[in-house]
Amino acid sequence: MYELLDLCGFDAREMQVQLPRIQETFSRLGITQDDIQTGKERLHVYYDMELWSVRRIMGLLLKDMADIVLLRDEGARKVIHACMAPGFEVLGTAINTNSEDVRLTYPNFTFTAILGGMFGKVVPVLEAAEKLWLRSGVVRHCGMVKTRVGLISLGLLPRPDLTVTTGYLCDTSPKSNEIMEAVFGIPAYCVDHTQDRQIADYPDASRATTLSAKGMRRFSDIVRTQTGFEIDDDMIWRALEARRPIRDATDRVLEVVRSSDPSPLASTHLNLFPAVGLVPYKEDDIPAVVSLLDHLRDELEERVGRGVGVLPKGAPRILVLMPTHHADPRFEHLAHRLGLNIVASDFNFSSGQEKSGAGIVDPSDPYNVICQHPHGTSGQFLEARIGIIIDACRRLGIDGVIGHYHSGCRYIAADTLAIQGAITRELGIPVVAFEWDNFDPRSYNEHEYAAKLETFRGMMERTVKVC
Amino acid sequence: MVTSQIASLMEARLSALEEAGDSGTKIVGYFPGGYVPDELVYASGAIPLCLSHGGDARPAEEALSLVPNVICPFARAQIGEALLRTNLLYNKLDLVVVPCTCQHLKQVGDVWEYYGTVDIFKLGVPYDNKDAYEIDYFRERLSELKGLLEHLTGNVITSDKLTEAMNIYNRLRGLLKTLSLARREQRLRISALDFVRLNHISMYADPVMTCDTLEEVLSSVSQAELLPEGRPRVMLAGPALAFNDLDILEMIAAAGADIVVEEVFEGIRDYWHVVQGDGDPLDVLARSYLLDKRPAAFMRGATSRRIDRALDLIEDFDVHGVVWYQLLCCEMYDQESYLFERVLRERGTPMLVVESDYHNLNVGPVRNRLEAFVEIIEGGPVGV
């Protein structure tokens, strides 16, 4: 255990505080000595443990996992569980900073990164959900929703007093929370949304953002009635302000990854950034997170300065559709071994409205400021998503696209073939498209993926780009 | 008799479509699920067509060139019809209204918009209706649709026209409801197949002509020959029962049971609600369609209300078992089936899940399962 915590960047003082907490957490999650050994080995195989900041990021997520598991022991009277709920990390910061005993958690990405990525132990969680209403098989329910239902049904998370999700991309998540309400008695809330934007509207998303903002404000009313804690607008403004540097620092790291040749960081790490970015930190904890991300950027820039990379200079630059795998680094590791430089996911890009501020209909409403995710590729309708992706490919000098579509997400998976056609037509670069599950390691098939990626690499070598 | 009546209605509709080009009449299609008010399209003077074909593997397979098979076969069939262009009902459209309900239908709208040659209007349906802002949102979208229809047809949709359309469709729904309620009797005089085919033709046919036909059917049904007695009474539930997707009905009948009521989202016209209220007709439409009618599975917070509704139907229609007819990859209904089965088991009502991808449903395994299910029902309630 000491070795693991040391590997994860804990110093002696932190170790003293965290060791008993993490021991207790592991005991509850069933993480054994053998698992710890496996975890250490996986960290060395899949992650860049030479980088102090990568080690610290693993430590940060490990601590977040303990914070979540021990919530009740450490005084949380009411626990709110958020999942597939972009923007709720901000409300989480507002609640966790200002309430003594109400806590909002956003556990999924932490658990997939640690239980899955570090320990390779997420499958029993998925199987637990499959024994309930998220059966396995051709229906292809989302692995992220399975992770949530599995963790709660197995009692690995403190039983929440309220679940919250959104319908921005999905019907599975809201329906699953409703069934949890019926079966486990946990009240469920879903932020309302519609998906009715079309070409004539683009890039305007004001209808969607305004409706979602109202739904998010209604959530705050529900928190008041369910927990007695009142979230006021000032708290949210402060949380927004406090969290903005996390996003900025993450963008700086990603910019170094995307703009450097040779690449200074393997793509197995890319799933760690959404995990770090969605933890609903208390405001006081945020400067350390920003400092950690800035330190990572410094370490990467230092490598770039020395001309050191994790792949040879000139390795083909790849964009992936959907993020890299959240619970299993093997696919990215395989791509890396085959010399493919995955530099970004389409989820990293948007119509640009959000960042320019032009998409904010009512700047005096903090909920409206939060609800800008419909501008991102993941929240767009087909034609808009295609436009953003093609633009990103051009800007990043992409040589090929891997469309590993998350079959559980109908909203996004269904776009894949149209995107493939458009990229091939407009850019003349190869696109390999195949189905997988972003949260389920069982979709990994080494031989199949190796054959696909080798063919894909060969196609890139023979490709003359249109642009 | 019903068969010839339905054929006449379809023939009349196809003639009207043929003539529409010459007369300048516009044709407006929309997808089913009960969230696009037929009244609005009808009041504009356009020909309303609720595009609800399915059950045939060919169009669903054709769509696989554009979308992966994680999209349900009903939604894929809508894409496939547009690609194949062999179905007259899908070929002459001037506008298609896509209700943004489930993810699959939403994708149909995206694909038709991206590849298509017909104008698309995406009708955002809020997933919840607890607050006024959600009704307002829907009302605003209906108002935009009204403007678009007026622009397309060159006709102003007056309050009088809209009120007249509401009366026509209320009459249509009322007649279907009366016919449906007749199936509460222990000895049936109309089969599920005939009832569903009448319901299905109402998606395409002229509503006034359909009402007249339904009145004829109703007046003759009391004299109709009684169907065999003593057969188990079944409710059919699920996401979609498309126009022409009739195998499951025939198979249940062949297995020895009678379907006496359907609880289906897409493909069966929702005849339980009445569009009514005072004030602005658009307000009335928005409230009636979003708030007053029984919620579909995609509506947030709908699950428990839907179970209550199903239990009421089971009680009211003296249902002995439920066949949950689900389409492949329908993630919402697949989840709900777990809860429905659990609740029904507690009260001793057996439920069977049958899944279809529009391929060879009528083959051995499903037939055997249906026969076994009927035998179980006949043996008495499960768990009692």
Describe the secondary-structure layout.
The complex is a heterodimer of chains A (467) and B (384).
Chain A: H1 2-7, H2 12-29, H3 33-46, H4 52-69, E1 78-82, H5 88-98, E2 102-105, H6 108-118, H7 123-130, H8 143-153, E3 162-166, H9 172-184, E4 188-191, H10 206-227, H11 233-259, H12 272-278, H13 286-306, E5 317-320, H14 330-337, E6 341-345, H15 353-356, H16 366-370, H17 382-396, E7 400-406, H18 410-413, H19 416-427, E8 431-436, H20 446-462
Parallel strand pairs in A: 1-2, 1-3, 3-4, 5-6, 5-7, 7-8
Helix pairs in contact in A: 2-4, 4-6, 4-13, 5-11, 6-12, 7-8, 11-13, 14-20, 17-19
Chain B: H1 2-23, E1 27-30, H2 38-43, E2 47-50, H3 57-62, H4 73-84, H5 88-91, E3 95-100, H6 103-115, E4 119-124, H7 132-153, H8 159-181, H9 192-204, H10 207-221, E5 233-240, H11 247-255, E6 258-266, H12 281-292, H13 302-316, E7 321-327, H14 331-346, E8 351-356, H15 364-378
Give short descriptive properties of this protein:
heterodimer; A: Rossmann fold; 4-stranded parallel β-sheet; 9% strand; globular; B: 384 residues; alpha/beta; Rossmann fold; 15 helices
